[in-house]
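Board work, copied verbatim: Amidohydrolase
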Amino acid sequence: MGTATTSPPPETPPTPPKLAAISADSHVTEPGDCYVDRIDPAFRDRAPVAATDPRMGAVMLIDNGRNRIPYGMIAAAGRPPETVGPFEFTGWEQLHQGGWDPVARLAEQDRDGVLAEVIYPSVGMLLCNHPDADYKKACFDAYNLWLAEEFAGHAPDRLIGMGQTALRSVAEGVEDLARMKALGLRGVMMPGHPACAQEAGDYDDPRWDPLWRAAAELGMPVAFHILTSGNDQIGSPQYRGPKMNSFLGIMRGCQDVIGTLVFGGVFDRVPELKVVCVEADAGWMPHWMYRADHAVRYHGNWLGDRDLSRLPSEYVRDHVHLTFQDDAVAFRVTDLMDHRRLMWANDHPHSDSTFPHSQQVLAEHTAHLSDDVRDAILWRNCAELYGLSLPDLPASPAGTPDRKGVPA
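↓ predict structure ↓
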């Protein structure tokens, strides 16, 4: 009998090194005790509370159940698209526990290969559109306490909390910013429209300048998130055609705010202000900048807007940061805008998230970029904006970043 020979096992392709990344836009899914345990007692009977709906599963009830937020929709990261919908029953045990448990969240960060996340609300996004400003104030104060004490405070270098303010007045907004700063929160998510617009005007009105100055002096970026402006809601009757058409318009609220601040001269009056346009993608921005410059050059006379000392595109380059997740176009237009204002995000655990495949998405989307531009967009821009302390990640002589400190 001949001697048996064993073929060598096939070579396993080398695993590509993980890309250092910070998510500039991620979310909590507020737990049942977030609001009710901390809210002003006058509003406790209306506080958002957790429940199980027979059709939706895990929900948050608003205004004694008149409105229901299905958690299976907003915490659907990683699920097959065909299983995501408002009436796809999702039990609490099926949700990402890192939506409210910071220990579980750090494990989810490690799984997705991110160093840290800037944390925004989920229920709080929709509360931005609530008509009762006093109710919003009570809810946002309760949320800020929960976020600081029970979630972000557990790992402040990896869970970067963004507070909320109802803006019943400019002065109250300034007080809210100071309170958030004292709690250890790193920035503020603004409602798309101020509750006191009738008294103080829109955000370009000079009466808002004390708020912008306070944010700049406190080093707190001011963020405007999609779906917080009332006029950018999916399925809103203002949109024509099928509901899918309204989904394509969800960045409109952020675009309107940017235009309001730019054309209203806010950045001339408060040049230290930093604004973040959150989850509205970024591939469209070079055209917006070009069109805005065109409007000033050719139509500024008859449109009659305030005189600006610079072109709109220059204000955007200096003051406006943009977050995006699955936007391959944004990585292709870095030569048409300042790449230092682009910040990648995974949007975990929302349904538009790249979790748990962020590393694969980033490897594909950034393959054509230089190390410097790639690292700026994936982590450095966010770290600099929020003053984060991170491990040193220098580029090696071979051009491959040293991944020291990146979760394996």
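Residues 22-48+100-386 form a domain with the TIM Barrel fold (CATH 3.20.20.140).
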